[in-house]
Write a structure and sequence with these properties.
The protein is of the alpha/beta class.
Length: 528
């Protein structure tokens, strides 16, 4: 029996802005499948665009303030330890995939507890293929027939093909989706086909080759969907894109020359030195560690700085002292200007941190700007994370982001998206929520050159930073015309935001969105 009106999402991992490739490479099968639907040429991903953050934010509909991790490696303020959350390690020389020993699993942090809290409450059933977030039970009969739950499907062969950068992952995943539609009844079928390893290893050439192979397999996919489902809505998009890199460093090496910062431990295994607040100083002496840094194997850094004030606001002594350290303290940290010193490094593009009075400061070697929230009544209630708008103000020198069109005035989230989607660092409004996330470091450091892959020195691209190449993606959508579906047919949209996907899932599934019902999946500037 055919599935009635399901939503089918094809999630392409690390394929970036793939829309131009349809014409450039002659991807006629993909073009035919989405003919008459909607194309979003520039869809902006949540930041940071790392797997465990962007994907959970979109899939579970939660903000970063609800997310306990930033990526594969995170730093826990409460315990003062690094945690490596990678599911597996891959040895490129031997081809062996092994579990990471002695480290918490991603599921310990985000699933099934997070998924169980959020996804069943959406009121629909999700069948996910190619995810590692675990399975949550469907609602029991005593819930009065209310739907909701997650069916999670994965297999070892798919994991091996992805890790070995094999293009055979594409037909294998497609067949897995078609089998799942036969075997499981769901409202939403969510298929992940990862080009992550391919694009990391082969760069933009791998991106093009992946899309060519996908186009070859598309007729089988479309024929299978037509056989399995009736009146389905089909969406294909990528979560983030790649950025070429020129070198590899460990995070601590990049910051080794910053006077006043003392690092302890590595970012792979949990570090008992950090938990005890001790590190090795020059000459082998033991000194108090006051800094931790993670990159999640990506092209930007998150620096945690031990707060110099030993007392909390209530006057009690803080034994951990890993609570947040903000702008003024970082500008005068035991007599050292930590922010300016990092910003002056040759490979630093800029640094970002929270300001005590609210908002964030963005500092480069040549200038400084501030960005604060703006929630005026005239602003449209659209924007990722519920932010309605912002005010971007140059403090001194050269604009670090080059946002002349919005500098010095309050703009809505919609206008900021439209004005900045083609800039080197698009839509900085979302950084406000990122820096407020409990798991985020005190300073986000954006670099020009290096990728911090301490365990994968062979890769030639990175992702996870705020650059256009990393957060820029594309989206195609087609399906039955329905006034509540949020799909504008026969159009191209210049820009949009993945952050609205959560509400749109409910809209496309013909259920009222829980918040901001006027927010559509494909909001943004239309082609003219």
């Amino acid at each position: 029996m055919k599935r009635e009106s399901p939503l089918i999402i094809l999630w392409l991992d690390n394929l970036g802005v793939f829309h131009p490739l349809i014409g450039e490479l002659g991807l006629t099968n993909i073009a035919t499948a989405f003919e008459g639907g909607t194309a979003v040429r520039h869809l902006l991903s949540p930041m940071p665009s790392v797997t465990e953050s962007a994907e959970v934010v979109v899939k579970a509909g939660c903000g970063l303030n609800q997310l306990p991790v930033l990526g594969e490696v995170t730093f826990d303020r409460a315990s003062g330890q690094y945690f490596n959350l990678k599911q597996t390690d891959f040895d490129k020389e031997t081809g062996i995939i092994t579990p990471v020993e002695g480290a918490p699993r991603l599921a310990d942090f985000v699933g099934p507890a997070l998924a169980e809290r959020l996804i069943p409450n959406l009121g629909f059933t999700v069948c996910q293929i190619g995810w590692k977030l675990g399975q949550t039970p469907l609602h029991p009969p005593q819930w009065g027939g209310k739907r909701g739950g997650v069916i999670s499907l994965e297999d070892d062969e798919a994991i091996r093909l992805e890790a070995t950068a094999s293009y055979d992952i594409i037909p294998l995943r497609i067949q897995a989706l078609l089998r799942a539609m036969q075997d499981y009844e769901a409202d939403l079928y969510l298929l992940n086909i990862s080009g992550d390893s391919i694009v990391h290893d082969e760069g933009l050439a791998g991106q093009a080759a992946f899309m060519k192979r996908l186009d070859e397999e598309f007729p089988a996919l479309i024929e299978g969907l037509a056989a399995q489902a009736k009146d389905f809505t089909f969406i294909m998009f990528s979560d983030h894109g790649p950025r070429p890199v020129q070198g590899h460093l460990k995070p601590e090496e990049f910051l080794a020359g910053i006077e006043g910062l003392i690092f302890a431990g590595e970012a792979s295994p949990p570090s008992p030195l950090l938990a005890s607040g001790e590190g090795r100083g020059p000459g082998g002496g033991v000194r108090a560690a006051n800094a931790a840094v993670v990159s999640n194997g990506r092209g930007s850094l998150y620096l945690y700085v031990r707060n110099p004030d030993p007392s909390t606001s209530s006057g009690h002594r803080d034994k951990t002292a890993w609570r947040r350290t903000a702008y003024r303290q970082l500008r005068d940290y035991h007599g050292q200007d930590i922010l300016a010193t990092i910003a002056d490094q040759p490979e630093t593009a800029f640094v970002v941190c929270n300001r005590e009075e609210g908002g964030i400061a963005i500092l480069s070697a040549e200038g400084e700007a501030t960005l604060s929230t703006a929630d005026g009544g005239a602003l449209l209630p659209q924007g990722w994370g519920g932010l309605r708008g912002g005010a971007y103000q140059l403090a001194w020198g050269k604009d670090p982001l080059g946002l002349d069109e919005i500098e010095g005035r309050v703009v809505s989230a919609q206008e900021m998206l439209e004005r900045t989607h083609d800039k080197p660092f698009p839509y900085p409004l979302q950084w406000l929520e990122l820096l407020q996330a409990p798991c985020c470091g005190d300073v986000m450091i954006v670099v020009d050159k290096y990728a911090f892959f301490w365990d994968k020195p062979w890769v030639i691209t990175t992702h996870g930073g705020p650059s256009r190449g990393e957060v820029g993606t594309s989206l195609l959508a087609a399906g039955p015309e329905h006034p509540e579906a949020g799909i504008r047919y026969g159009q191209q949209i210049a820009c949009g935001s993945i952050g609205q996907l959560y509400n749109s899932l409910r809209r496309i599934l013909y259920r009222r969105p829980p918040r901001r019902p006027e927010a559509d999946l494909l909001f943004g500037a239309r082609e003219r």
